[in-house]
Amino acid sequence: MTRIVNLNKTRKRREAVKKRAQADANAMKFGKTKAERVLNATQNERARIKLDGHRFDDE
Predict the structure, then answer these.
(1) Mind listing the pLDDT tens digit for each residue in 24-53?
(2) Distance in angstroms (rounded) separating the CA atoms of residues 26 and 51
């Protein structure tokens, strides 16, 4: 006996799997945790302050 398959459900499941794979790829490529974003912002701020501290004013 063959099994009856609902083609709409099969199509939707296949599309959901593709979307999830794309979302996972984007998360790996672009995603950062909140801790990483905070650490990066802190490091950038410290570097900016240090660079501004070495600036000469021509006044």
Answers:
(1) 999 888 888 889 999 999 999 999 999 998
(2) 34
